[in-house]
Amino acid sequence: MDTTKVMLNGAKSRVHGSMTNLPVLLPVAERVRRAALIERREGTYRLNMQPRHAVCVVALMAVAVGSAQAATPAGLIGPLEAMWKWMGFILVGPEGAFTGFSLNLIISFFAMVIGTIAGAALGLMQISLLLPVRRGSWIVTQFFRNSPWLVLLFTIMLLFPFEIDLGFVVIPVPDWMKAVIGFSLPIMANISEVVRGAVQSLPTGQWESAESLAFTRRQTMWMIILPQCVKRMIPPWINWYCILTMATPICSIMGVEESVSYTAQALNAEGDRPELIPVFYAFLLVIFFIYTYPIARWSIQLEKKFAFKT
Amino acid sequence: MNAIATNWTPDQPMVAIKDLHKSFGDLGVLKGVSMDIMKGECICIIGPSGSGKSTLIRCINALNDIQKGSIKVEGLEVNDPNLDKLELRKKVGMVFQQYNLFPHKTALENIMMAPIHVLKQDKKEVEERAFRLIKKVKLEGKEQSYPGELSGGQQQRVAIARSLAMNPDVMLFDEVTSALDPETVKEVLNTIQDLAEEGMTCVLVTHEMGFAREIANHIYFTDLGVIVEHGPPATFFDDAKDPRTKEFLSQIL
Predict the structure, then answer these.
(1) Which residues of A touch B114 (CB under 8 A)?
(2) Pick from A310, A281, A294: which is nearest to A63 by CA?
(3) How many CB pairs under 8 A join A and B?
(4) Given an 8 Å threshold on Cβ–Cβ distance, is B86 in contact with A214?
């Protein structure tokens, strides 16, 4: 059997943008085509953060603060003062609690670890030579990749027991741990696609030359294919980490005490003053931006660096 | 060594191809090809693109499966579902048009990998041999270079050395100079010529007619999946019989 054929001739991707013949559209079409190629390979959209986005975020913050300043009734504290008062609470929660924004980071970290390990295994199964394994892992991948994150999160948080009784010891499962499991499922599925995409993006010649040198399939995989893929997988992997971090606030709906929950609580404690709402949420946006921007930029740089080397 | 018992002796063809048929789906690529290659011979296969020459040599080391016919390499039947591919590929080395070096390994590591991990040979011994092979393909000093740092011609010579490290009995060259700059073609051809002169059995698919004429013992011209004409270079180039061969040669020469 032509083993390389089986696994490498996945769907030949037809990418939009290459079909236009209007001269004025060609440069744009080429850019769109290249972006689409990358996104197709990595199975996700690219967080293409630019310095100008930082300007936008700052401007938004300034507008929110300025208008809130103007709308503040006499005798109440101004928006900057209110923000300053609640900043510590939103970032790390009450002392020693590791809630608020720090809990977003904790959840994203553990979800990424679990999702990566499970996703790598699932991705390797997707390129197995055994049809049932390949098909099964494909179905699992597509299921979790295409389900709404919120639905997965709800299901896990409602299904999972609040404690696990092992007979001799009872392990409590706090809500944030359930959220970790809930988030790790879509991450697992997307990392699975990243792994599959990276393996399939290698030229078939690598398989053929390994085969003609009498390497077994397993040896080819671990000694020749995967070491080359790791480099290709790092940028999309970082990209997914950013997307995950930005998605963690959705678990506030389930009462997890992360930054968005705490922002709502802080606003409530300030008497639900409408002029403060944009200020507080803009502040949250700034925090997330400050955290993810350098990471997203780093992944873009790595992408460029690796593109030239191989 | 657990060499599989075959009745092959060196006076028989090293590679014997009989009535080989190969198709990709409905598309018939090879339609009854037969040829015998003796030990120490250098065979060149030429023909227009799409005539099945690459497919033919890829069948010899089982990179492509075949539908009908027989290929025997030192008596080992390639068209056998129970074929020990490892045993076959120890006998047959292959070099590709696109070099296909492993980009994450140095030139030396590229050469050493298969003998160490596939043949389980002693690392020290393999390393010595790898250095000798690097020297043989005239790349001294490039041992620690990565493929990306080498020119096309240099990469191709590393690929040849990598294949030789397995001590094959037959070497297959699949259009190995087609992707190279004209000025580096020569260095690769010289390497192949040295090999052929040392008595290595070589099968080349090539477009380098001058080279084929110079080193080949026998030339095969294929078109549309069959061998149209074959013979020793002198007869073949100067006294072609078939109109298709004549037309092809008139376009090339």
Answers:
(1) 213-215
(2) A281
(3) 60
(4) yes
| Interface pTM, i.e. ipTM | 0.90
**Under 8 Å between Cβ of B26 and B188:** no
The per-residue pLDDT for range A284-308, each reduced to its tens digit, is 999 999 999 999 999 888 888 876 5
Q: What angle do CA A260, A264, A268 make, to 5 degrees?
A: 165
pLDDT score recorded for residue B63 = 92
A149 to A9, A146, A178, A209, B140: CA distances (angstroms): 30, 9, 13, 42, 57
Contact list in A for residue B86 (CB cut-off 8 A) is 214, 216
Q: Give the residue among B132, B112, B136, B131 at the shortest CA–CA distance from B123.
A: B112
Cα B214 from Cα A99, distance rounded (Å): 79
CB atoms within 10 A of CB A120: 18
- When mean pLDDT is compared over A4-18, A72-86, A98-112, the highest value belongs to A98-112
User: A211: which chain B residues are within 8 Å (Cβ-Cβ)?
Assistant: 63, 89
Confidence of residue B12 (pLDDT cuts 50, 70, 90): confident
- pLDDT for the residue numbered A20: 62
Q: How far apart are CA A249 and CA A230, in angstroms?
A: 30
CA Rg, chain B, in Å?
A: 18
Nearest alpha carbon to residue A182 among A257, A115, A136, A282: A115
Interfacial A residues in 188-207 facing B (CB < 8 Å): 203, 205-206
Strands B201-205 and A170-172: unpaired
**pLDDT (tens digit per residue) in B208-244:** 888 899 889 999 999 989 999 999 998 998 888 888 8
Tell me: the pLDDT tens digits for B66-87? 999 999 999 899 988 888 888 8
Q: Does A2 contact B at CB distance below 8 Å?
A: yes
CB contact under 8 A, A2 and B159: no
Asked if pLDDT for residue A6 goes beyond 80, the answer is: no
Residue partners of A197: CB distance under 8 A and separation at least 6: A40, A41, A42, A43, A236
> Global pTM?
0.81
Q: Do A211 and B65 touch (CB under 8 A)?
A: no
**In this complex, do B93 and A224 lie within 8 Å of one another by their Cβ atoms?**
no
B200, B202, B208, B211: CA torsion to nearest 10: 30
State the greatest distance between any 2 C-alpha atoms of chain B, in Å, as a whole number.
56
In 3-state terms chain A splits into helix, strand, coil percentages (rounded to 5) of 75, 5, 20
